[in-house]
Amino acid sequence: MDVTKLVEQGLFQLFEGVRVDDGTDLSKPLLVLNPKSPVVEVTTTERVSLALLCTDSVSSKVTLRLAPQAKCSVALLCLGRGVLALDVEQGAESESRITTALLSDATLSYNVRLLGERAASEFDGLYIATGNDHCSVSLNVRHEVAECKSRSMIKGVAAGTATGEFRGLVYVAKDAQRTDAEQQNRNIELDRSHIVALPQLEIYADDVRCSHGSTVGRADEEAVFYMRQRGLSEADARRLLLEGFVQEVAQACDVAHICRMMAEEIDKRLLTI
Amino acid sequence: MLKVTDLHASVGDKEILRGINLEVKAGEVHAIMGPNGSGKSTLASVLAGNDKFTVTSGSVTFEGEDMLSMSVEERAHKGMFLGFQYPVEIPGVTMANFMKLAVNERRKAEGKEPLTAAEFLRLMREKSAVVELDAKMTSRAVNEGFSGGEKKKNEIFQMAMLDPKLAVLDETDSGLDIDALRIVATGVTRLHTPQNATVVITHYQRLLDYIVPDVVHVLYKGRIIYSGDKSLALKLEKEGYDWLINDYKE
């Protein structure tokens, strides 16, 4: 993918700074290409769209700090091998909305700390592991103060002899009353692949709403039957079902242009299964 | 059109259908009633080719062809439609995308060219009106987040799109309020022609106020134990099944 072209076409603006404040031009999504260890601080209350695109092999740690009432959408698309960490710290009433797609042998560690009241965090993540890949996603969502909200959905697909792994923790501190947290993990194992899922809750407050769930399975056979009854071949039914499962993540992405790229790259990756 | 002869089917070791005989001709509407667990839904699933059930003996022919040797999708291509009691949600797959594939696969099997995008859109608009389905629904994921009524309307919408020769509707009336029932039932009636046939599986007589059957069958313990005209449904509604099934109780 020719990234300079994306910038020349005016779809994104390359971002190399640290602070995103009231003076920053937000007319186009900010793009960080193959990030190393940037720390991005958002102090404006305008919605910020940030695209993180990894086309090479990378080892990166992105830190995102949201000041009170900051609103930030992040899309992370990883096409090369990578070891990635995304650390988010959120002030009061801030909102983060993060979509990630790992489409190669890659590892993501996502940590969010909700440090100010009524902060909200949304996370949709996908990995597709094929061949001999090993993909893993670990989530650590920490509710440190009261009345924060978090929702995360992590989807994994493994094919061939690939392996996948999910570790998820929702931590609710003693004073984080009225926390509303949800963490869901859905996995599809194809061929001879194997996926391990370890969801965990650690709750010290007593007035909270927390839910989590994790499933590992093959295709939904009832859905396959339903689609064949309407005339689709079994192969088409399975392909469409898998496409729907993974594309939901790209549909959740709200960073302009990169959501389309994400959908296209996911489709390309599916063709290798 | 459909001829079922001494059909036996089981799930695991349990025999559920124990010798079904049924003949449905073009232009007819049949209703199948019966207490819970009598095998009504199993019959619908077996006709559609669900491999959860094993046919152990008997035959099913559809327009003279052996239907039991056909795959699920071949049966669909020949014009067999099953309206599901519990329509399945398919996350991330839009109704439009799903229906486009379904319609064009059927056309391919019939040796016809696929519809163009414009033709397909026109067809969707026309058919969604049959069940007063909001056209916006077609851009949503299949059945996902649909209410009970919307799911059932969506089944009939798909039936309208695929124009089947034989529609088997498995408890299409369950979970519907009066308005949704009227819309769904009126939709089914509008789709009925002298060339096609409908089999409705139902618990309640009220559906048959709209969809008037030529024949009503009572299924009990895997067999059709009694058949009559539409007045049978009214009698069953008033008197229950006891007068019929007492002789068959074990």
Largest sheet of chain B: 6 strands, mixed
- Residues in β-strands, percent of chain A: over 45%
Tally of DSSP helical segments of chain B: 9
- Helical content of chain B (DSSP H or I, runs of 4+): 25-40%
Shape annotation of chain A: globular
Rounded average pLDDT of chain A: 94
Output the CATH class name of chain B.
Alpha Beta
**CATH fold-level assignment of chain B:** Rossmann fold
Q: What's the total count of β strands of chain B?
A: 12
Distance between the termini of chain B: 35 Å
Question: What about the largest sheet of chain A?
Answer: 9 strands, parallel
How do the SSEs of chain B run, as a string of H and E?
EEEHEEHEEHHEHEHEHEEHH
Structural class, from helix and strand content of chain B? alpha/beta
Shape field of chain B: globular
Proportion of helical residues of chain A: 10-25%
The domain count of chain B comes to: 1
Mean pLDDT of chain B: 92
Cα-to-Cα separation, first versus last residue of chain A: 21 Å
CATH architecture of chain B: 3-Layer(aba) Sandwich
- Output the helix-strand order of chain A: HEEEEEEEEEEEEEEEEEHHH
Number of domains of chain A: 1
Describe the overall structure.
The complex is a heterodimer of chains A (273) and B (250). With 273 residues, chain A is an alpha/beta fold. Helices cover 18% and strands 48% of the residues of chain A. Chain A has helices at 3-8, 221-229, 234-252, 258-271; strands at 13-14, 19-20, 30-33, 39-42, 47-54, 58-66, 71-78, 82-90, 95-102, 106-114, 120-129, 134-143, 149-158, 163-172, 180-189, 194-203, 209-217. In chain A, α2 crosses α3 (234-252) and α3 runs antiparallel to α4. Chain A is globular, with a radius of gyration of 19 Å. The two termini of chain A are 21 Å apart. By secondary structure, chain B is α/β, with parallel strands linked by helices. Chain B contains nine helices and twelve strands. Chain B has helices at residues 40-48, 72-77, 95-109, 117-128, 148-162, 178-191, 207-210, 231-239, 242-245; strands at residues 2-11, 14-24, 29-33, 54-62, 65-66, 80-83, 90-94, 141-142, 166-170, 197-201, 215-220, 223-228. In chain B, α5 packs parallel to α6 (178-191). Chain B is globular and about 60 Å long. The chains are: A alpha/beta (273), B alpha/beta (250). Chains A and B meet through α2 and α3 of A and α2, β7 and α3 of B.
